[in-house]
Structures are given as C-alpha cells and as structure tokens.
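Many introductory courses stop at the sequence. We go one step further.
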Amino acid sequence: MTREKMINMANKEMLTDILSETIGKSCKVDRLITDWSVTKKSFFQLFGEKLTIEKSIEFFVDEAVIKDDWYNFYTNRNLISVFCGSLDNYLKYMGRDVIPKGETEEKFNLKVSYFRYIRNLKEEELKNNKIKNEDKLLVRNKKVSLKGWKVTKAIKTLLSITGADQSVINNIITDFSKLIQSWKTKGTFVLSIDPIDYVLMSESGGDWSSCHGFGGCHQGGTLSYMTDDNTIICYLHKDETFDIYGHKYIKKIWRQVIYLDAEEPACIFSKGYPFRSAANSQVITNMVKSLFPQVEKWKNIEDDEFSEWVTVENHYFIDKDGEEAEGTIPYIDIFYSSEAAGMLPENSEEYSSYMEIGDSPICPVCNIDYVVNGELLTCDECAGRTKTTHCCKCNNELQEKYIFFYDEGGNPYCEKCFNEHFTCCPCCKETINKCNTYDADESNIELCRNCYRGIISNYNEEEIA
C-alpha cells in the first residue's frame, strides 16, 4: 500500500511532458515511477508518508559568516587603500608612524581613525545596517556620535570627507547593500523525494543552472539520483513559479543535494548551488536532524572519512564521437568540493553500511535498456549512439549490444553463426566449437574433450589427443 500511495502521488503527466519535450521523443514514465517507489520507500515513510518536508523561515545568517564576509569585503574592496591611499601607507603608519608624502599628520590620523572605526563594526550593526557604537568621531570639524546612523550612510560620509572618488564610493555602497541582502534568508526550505524535483533539480527559470540541468554534461544524473537509494533534493524558494512545457514549477533560489541513510542514520551534505550559504545549509542540517528524534546529539565527520561511506559505479557508454567511454552518471561533487560535510550520531563509532549513489535508470523512451551516459536522458541506442562491429564469420554489421558471443580469441559472432559453429556440452554446459566435439559411441551426443574422456573408459589416446 505504501508504494501504491507514492505512485498515486507522483505527477506522472508532468514528468512525461517534461521528459518527452526535453528528449524530443515520446516517453513513458510508469517504469521509472515504479523503480522510484521502490528505492525511495524508506524516505517516504521517514517523511510521514509525504513526498516533501517543508519549513518556512526568516532569519539572518550566522554571525560567524557575517564576520568572515565583512573581512573579505573590506579586504577585497580594498577599503584600506580607499581610506588611506594605499595599504603600504597604512602599514608604514601603523608600524613606524610614517606619514605619507603630501599628507599632514592630523589629516592622515583622521583617515586611519575612519578606517578603523568602519572595520571594527560589530556583526549586529552590519546585518541591521545600523550603528550602535557611541564613540565619537571628528566629522567635519565636530566631535559627533554616529549611533543610530545607517552603516551605508557612515561609510559614504566618511569616505567623502577623505576625498575618495564618488564613483568608487557609489560602487562600495552598492556592493555593501548587496552583501546585507545576502545575509537575509527567508522563504521555504524543502527536503524532497518528488520525482519532479529530481528531474528539475537544476532548473530555476533561467537564474542559474548546473551540469545536471537540461543540456548539461550530467543531465542524466537527475534520473540516476531519482532511482537510487540515498539521494534527497533540498532547496529554498519564495513561492515564485515559472512555466516549463505547459506546467508551473517552483523557482528555486538555492539547491543542495544530500545523501542519507534512513535505516542507519548518517548523512553527507554536498555543496550548495548557485552560491555557498552556511545559513541555508544549517537549516537543511536541522531539518535532517528532526527526522531522527531518537538521536540526541550528532557529530561532524571529516571528508576523508565520509568519502569512504560512498560507492559509485562507473558505466561504459558510447560518446558523441562513437567511441567507448567511462564515467559516472551524476556529478558527485562531494569528491571534489571542500564544502561537503558529513554527520553521524555522536554515539556511533563509525558508519557500518554504505551509500550507493547514482542508479542506472530505465530509459524513458524504450523502457528496455538503461541510461548509462550522464550526458543523456536515454539509453545510448535511443540517443542514436551505437557502436557497431562485424560478425567474424558472415561479416554482417552488428551493434555491440547484439553481439551474441565472443570466442576465446575475442572474435564476435552473430546469433546465427554462433548456432552454426558452436554447441553446448550436455555434461559440463561449456560452450565449445563444433570442430572440437567428440561423439560417445556414435550416439550423436557432442561432448567436450574432458567430458568425453570421463565417460569413455576405453578411448584411443591418438583419437582425442
């Protein structure tokens, strides 16, 4: 009943339309949905028999993130040079009280005091764009407190006094305003096993994409993730939608793939797209933790350990040049990104199982063969990528998948020529060339050499040598 409920909840019509339009061929998704209902059944139960878990939230990022971002901002935007003329000027002054040429001591002291005031703003002041510091500064010949000022106003005013170029000031204020917005996160976070969310995992209505997007070098990874045992799609949205092949779909602001074991709690978090957000990842982490109320505390796991939890199958396929190639269907960035993270229950010494990431999904066009090439949403044959050879006897052209048999020398045979030239020993079931068979007592039973020796006790050594 659980799987039937999952299948009934899946939007098969939308999935069919999206795949048919993207691939350019008529698709049938019943088999895909059936396979998905098997592999994602444990998550469906973990989710309380739902396809998604959602959490609406509004918050600022962690203050540690703000602190790091602010350091990077005033360093990368080179506020030291904007205030003080150059980094060298500042360092010489701080180290040896050297006043730059063309500057008076009074004026340069003022510039340095402005920079240090802005640099030392607290995280709470920065995120709220409002100064709480009551210290007074000399502003246009008056000692004044900037308490209550917007940070943007303070930066603009102090830079103007130092004589900074107005275009430079405008750019700094614009970039800082964007930085403040990046610290605010509000919307709905989603953990999803919905088939549509797998297929559209990198479709955002044009704002961003990734290699798993339609046309990407790992677009087949969407179906691979959909039908494996451990992958969940997580994302953030603001209830905005876009049209895709006649259907409305949510416009994702940010997305993260996680790999989860529902039976033995363990989780690996991949990097977020299209930007890094420690705050967003923390929300997803907390949502995952809430799925396991029996776990009181969790511990973080280093990448050299959690990478050992994963097994990934390399697949052989035909590339666009008709040559045999090898690779994984999805792009699994936990092996390449320093942003990946893992966690285990604190009382677990190690993760004793493994996560098999990326399945070989059934081709939605033929529903016979499987998708093995990350570049494709179909099997090689339905994409027109077939490698051919020739039967070594009749010389007829053969697609590799229809080669019936290879002999010991690696020579390919079609089915017809195989039946003409080979047989199966009825005793040991070994495939043998008919030229190398032996007839016991002229019974027309074709035996291999070893079985003939075992059955015939009075044999002629020269006959079977």
